[in-house]
From TrEMBL:
Residues 80-103 have a biased composition (Basic and acidic residues). Keywords: Metal-binding, Nucleus, Repressor, Transcription, Transcription regulation, Zinc, Zinc-finger. InterPro entries: PcG_RING_finger (IPR051507), RAWUL (IPR032443), Znf_RING/FYVE/PHD (IPR013083). It is found in: Nucleus. It comes from the Eukaryota. GO terms for cellular component: PcG protein complex. Residues 71-111 are annotated as: Disordered. This is Polycomb group RING finger protein 3. It holds the Pfam family RAWUL. Residues 135-188 form the RAWUL domain. It comes from Crypturellus soui. GO terms for molecular function: zinc ion binding.
Amino acid sequence: CRSCLVKYLEENNTCPTCRIVIHQSHPLQYIGHDRTMQDIVYKLVPGLQEAEMKKQREFYHKLGMEVPGDIKGETCSTKQHLDSHRNGETKTDENLNKETSEEKQEEDNDYHRSDEQVSICLECNSSKLRGLKRKWIRCSAQATVLHLKKFIAKKLNLSSFNELDILCNEEILGKDHTLKFVVVTRWRFK
């Protein structure tokens, strides 16, 4: 798990399994969240995602903060479902299945619109590449630098996104960094 890796990498700069050096001085910056693996784990372990969301909500509630990704005025469907059970309300299986399928369809069409958003200005520093027609984009703070590279490569009709480097304040960004991480650690000016 991530917390075990972080603890290990505070003292070491190698992979705990194969002992290959991750990075000489900053190994923590080179580990990334594997969303695909997380989705697989959530699908294999019943109730895990709901339990994680509940723990996250309780954590932020204790701190008196808003839960990231929540739209003001809306609450998580899981939380509503849990609250209705706590209040002694019972629903028929038919109504529950109908609500669940509607919520699933709504979630599937969300496309991360309810995530925290980041606005970015993409400027080209190379004379070899042409600039984009629209240089401002707004996307989820959970998007990674790799997502941006693929988007730009597609827009510029490049054969490979590996030909691109994305910089912020003259620093090359790691492909696994989320835009939220870049905002917090690299942007010096709003």
